[in-house]
Amino acid sequence: MPHSPAPRRSARWKPLGALLTALVLGCAGPASAASPASFGPTPPHNPYLGPDGTATMHGDAGSSDTTPLAGPGAGTLSSSRTALASACPTILVGADGYPVALCTPIFGQVPTVHLLDPADGSSLTTLKLTKGSLLGGVYAYIDHQDRLVVADGSRSLLRIGHHRDADGGWSLRVDRSLSLASVVAEDDAVTGLAPDTDGRVWFATGGGVVGTADDSTGTVKALPLPAGELVANSISTAPEGTAVTTTHATYLLTSKAGTPEVVWRKAYDRGSARKPGLLSWGSGSTPTFFGPARGSEYVAVVDNADTAAHLKVYRTDDGSDVCSIPVLTAANGPGSENSPVGIGRSVFVAGTYGYPYPAVPEGAGTSVPASADFAGGLSRVDVRADGKGCGLVWDNTLRSAAVPKLSTADGLLHTVVRDPLIPGTRGTSLLDPYRYVQIDPDSGQVTRSTKVGVGSLYDTLQMAGTITPDGTYLQGTVTGVLRVSAR
Q1: How many Å separate Cα 303 from the centre of its chain?
Q2: Tens digits of per-residue pLDDT, 423-442?
Q3: Where are the domains of the chain?
């Protein structure tokens, strides 16, 4: 029988609906590509997942935030916005090339799935999901049959397909549903989910329950983590197991006949309080699998230590330490809410310290200090070739306002930055300009950029961008979806 943990109160972890509660409302020449092959492999492809680079918010099952697709290439960069009156943190693309966006409307905050037209980004059809008292559903993925896999407010695991109608139009339908209510308490919600290499869906809840679900057999099993450990980010899978980072520690788990078991646990410095620009008291990282041999021999997260943020790298097999190294020091912003980018021996960390979220999740706690200027910062760290320690390659003050993506096709980092209204200052305002940028991963320098908009309508709110098969960069904002392309 599945284990049913005692109900425990959890926070509204990561839902953009909670973040929206308080919301009122020059191009340079093309960059020369770096050498993608020099970075090494990406995590192994999961056969139960859609295309690498576009199947999850963080690109793949290992959350590497890499993509095999090239972004906007040579030509004049241009941008457009699809206004959906919704924050759209998750934009995924299946093998058929149709983007699927999971959005939270500003008004009503009922999570809604949009099927987007690949040609212009317009919404072809929508499907509203069940809104619960504690809404999960920010994290989702595209499976190997181009279905969106998500947990809704009813604590049900859904597979949502998009289908051609008889009249040639489109519809979104729930193709399969499995209740998780036997292991997920009524006052809890699924925070993150990902498939393993056996086809089971692993999930973690805000309240600290990790489980597996097999919606072909209806089997659901779970393991409650130690009391007080909450899960505020998504999870990652690799052939070695499932990585989960709580507000206290990082875990690697495997399963025995579907029952989760802990292989190792590594506590990190969570600091004395939540920091401004972070949404929980603890690491803001979805754990990242990476490595130079098989693409998954290391796991990386960023801690929440008081005086500095440290990149923590562990060996996947046994959890032993590879390194703990300060990052984001040039920007003097000790905090990151974003998953690191990982490939080969390299890790890239974007800082979010002081980012002005319109609201924070319920139960996140008061930040210390109460507010701060948005520091930003981007750091590259490389694991040494012998696997014994790490070194800082470069560290800058770039203010990324989204989760960067590294393309192995064009050798560039892609993101959106939030520039200060008054150049040379560190403050933020409702009139800040936003730019799409391409960054050389060897130097950390911006090689190409274009303005995408000015003001809060264009706030990318540290959400992840996605590159589509035709080279378009899609980026969620608090009001819809940005499209950046070259022509």
Answers
A1: 16
A2: 988 899 999 999 999 999 99
A3: 26-486
Q: Are 60 and 45 in contact (CB under 8 A)?
A: yes
Burial class (CB within 10 angstroms; exposed 0-12, middle 13-18, buried 19+) of 239: middle
Q: What is the DSSP string of 235-251?
A: -EEETTEEEEE-SSEEE
Residues contacting 278, CB < 8 A, separation 6+ = 284, 304, 335, 336, 337, 352, 353, 367
Query: What distance in Å separates the CA atoms of residue 263 and residue 479, rounded to the nearest whole number?
Result: 41
Closest CA to 178 of 218, 144, 138, 134: 218
**What is the secondary structure of 250-319 as a DSSP string?**
EEEEEEETTEEEEEEEEE----SSBPTT-SSSS--PPPEEE-SSSS-SEEEEE---SS-EEEEEEETTT-
Across the beta sheet with 156-164, the strand order is: 141-142, 148-151, 156-164, 170-179
* Residues, the chain: 487
pLDDT one-digit tens code per residue, 59-77:
999 999 999 999 999 999 9
d(CA 151, CA 220): 14
List Cβ neighbours of 435 (8 Å cut-off, separation of 6 or more). Answer: 416, 417, 419, 449, 450, 451, 452
Tell me which residue of 201, 204, 223, 199 sits closest to 212, measured CA to CA.
201
Strand 402-403, strand 463-467: pairing: parallel
Which run of H or E residues covers position 407? Answer: strand 405-407
Does the domain spanning 26-486 belong to CATH 2.130.10.10? Answer: yes
pTM assigned to the model = 0.92
Q: pLDDT digits over 379-427, tens only?
A: 999 999 999 999 999 999 999 999 999 999 999 999 999 999 999 888 9
- Rg, C-alpha atoms of the chain: 20
User: What's 13-54 look like in SS3?
Assistant: CCCHHHHHHHCCCCCCCCCCCCCHHHCCCCCCCCCCECCCCC
Question: For residues 418 and 376, what is the distance between their CA atoms, to the nearest angstrom?
Answer: 9
Cα–Cα distance for residue pair 352/148, rounded to 1 Å: 29
Q: How far apart are CA 26 and CA 156, in angstroms?
A: 47
Q: Which has the closest alpha carbon to 223: 215, 212, 214, 231?
A: 212
Q: Looking at residue 380, what DSSP letter applies?
A: E
